[in-house]
Design brief:
The chain has one domain. It is about 80% helix and about 0% strand. The protein contains 10 helices and no strands. Helix 1 packs antiparallel against helix 2 and helix 4 packs across helix 8. The radius of gyration is 17 Å and the shape is globular. It starts with a helix and ends with a helix.
């Protein structure tokens, strides 16, 4: 019963984090490992458990979606679904240790870009005498690789999305948050479909149920709170979350 309650609270925290800035995986995965699941199984269980929370957050944001630069929402979502499925497949057939080693450095890079991406974009525009803007093809290629990462491991993939859009398109973090939430849901759904069929994610039904319920509550509530925050405060929450998640990943390593 205690494990069920703790998993429920971990799910709430992960859902809120994903809705407001990203990093829910860092809460969900260690909690499940602490309950005795193997890292790969815990990764699959956490992904399945966080899907309903991501969908709940996306539902809250459904009227706030705006295209990412020149790329249509439909094309972005198709790429996210495909990449999430590929990443989930890699998790099931490859060892996670080598990629896990690189995660803290990827997060550190993403956090720096998130913090200074708009300033860097403006500086590049000034130096080149024109706006710096990724083409639709470049955005989709970047999104595919991020979706693969999201399906494979997923730690702070939302932060990395915001970093890519910030440096490549000068997109404000608060403005891009609804699309980030929507694409996270797309990545998680395709990864979950594979995990349910090919992994032992259903081997811990009590923990999965508890975290799933918590993630729905946290995702729905967190999205409502995020929509009401001033843009500058939401940017601050996202950046602080990015810094904390990055530091925790280095300490974990």
């Amino acid at each position: 019963m205690l494990e069920f309650l703790l998993a429920l609270l971990a799910g709430v925290a992960a859902g809120v984090l994903n809705a407001m800035g990203g990093g829910g995986t860092f809460v969900a995965l260690p909690a499940l490992v602490a309950f005795g699941l193997s890292p790969v199984t815990a990764n699959a269980v956490s992904r399945v458990a966080l899907v309903p929370g991501a969908v709940a957050s996306a539902w809250v944001y459904r009227h706030d979606l705006t295209p990412v630069g020149p790329t249509s929402t439909k094309a972005m979502t198709v790429v996210s679904v495909a990449g999430g499925g590929v990443g989930a497949g890699l998790l099931l057939v490859l060892p996670a240790s080598s990629f896990d080693t690189a995660v803290p450095w990827l997060l550190a890079f993403a956090t720096l870009i998130l913090a200074f991406g708009r300033q860097l974009s403006k500086a590049l525009s000034s130096a080149l005498g024109r706006s710096v803007s990724m083409s639709s093809r470049a955005v989709l290629i970047g999104q595919f690789f991020l979706a693969v990462y999201g399906g494979y491991f997923g730690g702070a993939v939302g932060i990395m999305m915001m970093a890519l859009w910030s440096i490549g398109l000068g997109l404000d973090a608060a403005e891009g948050n609804p699309m980030r939430i929507f694409q996270l849901a797309a990545i998680y759904i395709s990864a979950t479909a594979l995990f349910l069929v090919a992994s032992d994610a259903l081997g811990a039904p009590a923990l999965l149920t508890a975290m799933l319920i918590g993630a729905v509550v946290g995702g729905y509530a967190g999205a409502h709170v995020a929509r009401r925050l001033p843009a500058w405060l939401l940017r601050g929450v996202i950046l602080v979350t990015a810094v904390i998640v990055t530091v925790l990943y280095f300490l974990r390593g």
